[in-house]
Amino acid sequence: MSRMKLPRGQAYLIALAVVVVIAFSITVATSGETGTQSAADESTVSSSSPPSSSPSASSKSSAPNKPKSQSGPNFEIKALKSGEKPPQFIIFSFDGAGSHQKWLTFSATAKKVKAQFTGFLTGLYLLDDAHKSAYVGPGHAAGKSSVGFGGTKDEVYQMINDLNKAKAAGHEIGTHFNGHFCAGAEPSANKWDAAAWNSELDQFFSFLTNYAQINGYTDAPKLTVTPADIQGERTPCLEGDSDQYFPALLAHNMRYDTSKVSNGIQWPTLINGVWEFWMPSVTVPALGTKVIAMDYNFWYKFNKAKDEPGRAPEFTKMVLDTYQSMYAAALNGNRAPLVIGNHFNNWSGNAFNPAVDAFMAAACNKPETVCTTYQNVLKWMAVQDPAILAGLLAQPPTAN
Ligand SMILES: [Zn+2]
């Protein structure tokens, strides 16, 4: 049975508050988690530990490595002509990015339809379980995590190979930070200050570059994903105060966030130097009610995130119908990039990932449609005529 290094049991309880324009407040409760830690473990963490400094590791591995030739963007990056419509971008992303089986599944589908996508890596998947104490989450004890660690040495090696293959195929790797502390595993990301976020990122980048030394590996495969590749992130459970974490992103040469929620499908917005790729709140056609278009939020909306494998086909269809309706709305509306946020997971009888897979297979080959990464959309935006781009960005969100 394949190990899923994912927050299986998080409950994202979403409260939508309509204030003047629309403000979203997101309340998150954490229940059982996967990996080696249980929710009960997390609730007992010390709240007195200061944010850690990076684990020490200095010399870089000298293992020789032949860089694989890397695929570039899967579409031609060129400026729109006056009056020309932008491509309908679809950005698929997966938080955690720690399942070999799911890398295989989505890489194969993406290859068939020439799609590229983004994996937001949980940095702890580069630490094997024996070395978990190398991680100290902000305000937490050493070795604590809500989503486990990398497992065995073989599993860490598999992870590295999956990441290398993904990069070679032109998929993007970003970060989902490390310990995934959401409400209930206090102090959760909502309570972190800039120093805490900097500590998370310092540690993430240290794991990325120094996993061999930290784990004591002498024959580890070299990870071709470098700090320069990591340009964006999604926060744990969409938690966090951007006044605190945006400065940490910029301090780590990162350019975008994709954690804030928009009412409808909206073009990215530059906020304090960081591009926000909004997570859209959309209508589920089968229910006529709105939800943030992310797997866990769908699940919570459908049945309060209870494991009901018998309803998997019904859930898959409701999610796929929602994606199709979002796609049609954007394609015929403001053409804002569709952000399809997910985890690699098998929740409720694997109800959710097949909807993403089916949508990728069905939509990415459609005319005027490009399924690509956040970084490639940013590259495309950078070559546009500033006035044309400003016009696109200023459009109101599209409702599905
Ligand atoms: Zn997550």
What does this structure look like?
It is a single chain. By secondary structure, the protein is of the alpha/beta class. The protein has one domain: TIM Barrel, CATH 3.20.20.370. 32% of the residues lie in helices and 16% in strands. The protein contains eleven helices and 14 strands. The strands form four sheets. Strands 3, 4, 5, 13 and 14 form a five-stranded parallel β-sheet that branches. The protein has a four-stranded mixed β-sheet with strand order 6-7-10-9. A three-stranded mixed β-sheet has the order 8-11-12. Strand 9 and strand 10 form a beta hairpin. The radius of gyration is 20 Å and the shape is globular. 50% of the residues are buried. The chain binds zinc ion. Zinc ion binds next to strand 3.
The largest β sheet comes out as: 5 strands, parallel
Question: Between the first and last Cα atoms, what is the distance in angstroms?
Answer: 38 Å
Provide the CATH top-level class. Alpha Beta
SSE pattern, N- to C-terminal: EEHEHEHEHEHEEEEEEHHEHHEHH
CATH topology: TIM Barrel
Number of domains: 1
Low-confidence stretches: 6-67
**Structural class, from helix and strand content?**
alpha/beta
Protein name: Polysaccharide deacetylase
Region (Disordered): 33-75
InterPro entries: CE4, Glyco_hydro/deAcase_b/a-brl
Biased composition (Low complexity): 38-71
